[in-house]
Description:
Blueprint: H1 2-34, H2 38-41, H3 56-63, H4 66-97, H5 103-115, H6 118-131, H7 138-144, H8 146-162, H9 166-174, H10 179-190, H11 192-208, H12 211-216, H13 225-230, E1 233-234, E2 237-238, H14 240-260, H15 262-274
Antiparallel strand pairs: 1-2
Helix pairs in contact: 1-14, 3-14, 4-7, 4-8, 4-11, 5-8, 8-11, 8-15, 9-10, 11-15
Amino acid sequence: MENKSVSKQVVIYVTLAIMLVCALFPLYWMLNTSFKSQGEIYNMTPSFWPKKLTWDGYRKLFEKDFLLNVRNSFVVSLIVSLFSIVISMLAAYAISKLKFRGRNAISKSILYAYLMPRSVLFIPLYMLVSAIGLSNSIWGLMLIYPTITIPYATWMLISYFKTIPDEIEEAAMIDGCSRGRTLWSIILPLAAPGMAATFIFSFTLCWSEYLYALVVVTKGTEKTITLGLSDMIVGDVFAWGPLMGGSIIASIPVIIMYLFTSKYMVSGMTVGGVK
């Protein structure tokens, strides 16, 4: 019996080790490639570490507007995610906790809005942004991105709010709390893991978005990080050193967020997905 338990643990740890290698190897290979010269990158015999360490890939990044692209992505992702969480929290609370006609239809409509392909919407959204003079600007992206993040965030928070017993809210209101005070003081603290998970997903979605940014923004200083990376590709020529270096820089903020909030991500996504 004990041997079976040991064998089971060995299988589990070996499987986890393989999964960890599969997850981390692409990051390692990007980091490895970013420090290689262009000639070594195109060598027919690949090496797992640079023969001669070079910073040319990162130097070429900093000669361009890439740091501005990083800043633009961070500003847009942060503002859109915060705005989406506030709007989605209010909408999700109303749909999950208030009794009114048509709330199920509204809930399904929100899901359908999230599932709608972006390729269907980018032309009318661009026409809207262009008509109000926000094309070629990160403000235009801040107007467009909530159409992606709010439906998903609302749907996730609806599921999460439904896991909070109504009796808790009713007891607070019997004790004299208004609905707004109950939401702020009781519901939101209980829903913090779900809101954290939803915020991180919204941030990641904005951070990695490409199609809308490509359509709306063409000015170098207004481009986001995904467009900055695509500028490393000219025709059929790939500047692999700068491209991999930029990909490493683009990965750092998201990795840091997930490392510090992983327990909220697991709790929020698990409980929110139950319903």
